[in-house]
Amino acid sequence: MPVSPFTSLFQGRRTLAQAAASSLLLGWPSSGPLPQVFGDGLKRSGTTSQGPAKACIVLFMWGGPAQQDTWDMKPAAPLEFRGQFQPISTAVPGLQICEHLPQLAARAEQLCVIRSMTHDDVNHTTAPHWLLTGRKSPGETSLPLDRDWPSIGAVLSQRGFGTGPLPPFVSMMPVVPNGAPRFVEQSHGQGGGWLGPVYNPLRIDEDASLPGYRVGQFSLQPELSSDRLQRRRSLNTALQTDSANPADTVAISEQYRRAFELLASPHVTAAFDLSLEDPATRDRYGMNIHGQSVLQARRLVEAGVPIVTVFWPNDGITNVSVYWDTHSRNFIDLSTRLCPVTDQAFSALLDDLGERGMLDETLVLWTGEMGRTPRVGQSVVGGAGAGRDGRDHWPTVFTSVLAGGGIQGGAIYGASDRYAAEPADNPVSPADLVATIYHQLGIDPHSLIHDRLGRPVTLCEGEVLQALLKS
Known about the structure:
By secondary structure, this protein is of the alpha/beta class. It has one domain: Alkaline Phosphatase, subunit A (3-Layer(aba) Sandwich). Helix content is 26%, strand content 13%. The protein contains twelve helices and 16 strands. It has helices at residues 5-10, 79-82, 102-106, 127-133, 152-158, 226-239, 246-263, 266-269, 279-285, 289-303, 330-355, 430-440, and strands spanning 55-60, 87-89, 96-98, 111-117, 169-172, 202-204, 307-311, 362-367, 371-372, 393-394, 398-403, 411-413, 415-416, 423-425, 448-450, 456-458. It has an eight-stranded mixed β-sheet with strand order 6-5-7-1-8-11-4-12, with helices on both faces. Strand 15 and strand 16 (456-458) form a beta hairpin. Helix 4 packs parallel to helix 12 and helix 10 runs parallel beside helix 11. The longest helix has 26 residues, at 330-355.
């Protein structure tokens, strides 16, 4: 199966896609807006209805945030369950969240907090498959990623979302040199799966907070002119042949079309240049890896990318808990490097989308792949253990948060029991959550999709959470 031209382009490999048009990344003044690609640039084919959301940003807190220490506080529970943090009131009467999320508390009228998410996978590499595809992982952690079900972004790509030159599916997965292990790279459900690698996302590994942040190879090779680039494009078109699967030929052709148009579109490729952003806006998101990745996601969506997934970075921290996987130092890490960073970035994203008139048409999902054990220091079968100040893996109940894209704000859906151990009301499966996302994007979650052998299968077997939707 061929590799996407975007993969070759942005990894700087020696392919015809490296022959960039001259004067790329000239952009527009930093005080000016991005080109208005957001509306018409996200037209798509293959959908069964016109959903209220035109784009989706997934903020994936890889590792599993502790539900009772963030969105689902249990102040009446014994200390060993409720933990060290205090709840604070929000802008929504009756909704309290963690004291270390004050900016999100002030914006709770825009949030739909689902406190009854549940599944049964305690493994970090397979559990994300539930949340990113709506399907349980088909096998063990060692199973090749091309055996996965396709992610939401891959399905949007396959169904023709996005008509501009930018890739339809981007994944922010920044690398920290000499940092903690890159477990997130092994996560299942993040790409094209059995649809094939042409539907994998453009993956951005660069740290967007660094002064020299740059995505891809956008400089024209000295020996190449624009005319020579165009001749190469014509030659590439002439050499394309049918594959075993005709759909592959169409997809590959579309990928190359986008790649060539991207190379010749400096006003679009400037979406990757964060130096063009107002410094005050950058500061609002936080001048850190996650904050700038979230800002990059907003710029890409505004420029015409239908879906961007922002994975929490590995932080560059070793010898302690990494990501949101707080087996030890749960309260130290949540109060210092986790909650404050997500509070600032998520809040800034809500404000920024609202100010630009994009929030009603951009669905935002904040989630991890699981939660943490009800009792501090509790270890579970299949988990990785817990120190005296940590919590182990716990998929039985956790919290996900939605905003924008036609979702009711100021809402609480479902509930956990008094110990944040089990769903107590309206349990929500990952399949239900993904079905709701598809519905808001205008895709019937129960429609058919064909696997690599051409066999029709149901896209998602979850039910749309109608109570979450604006009337």
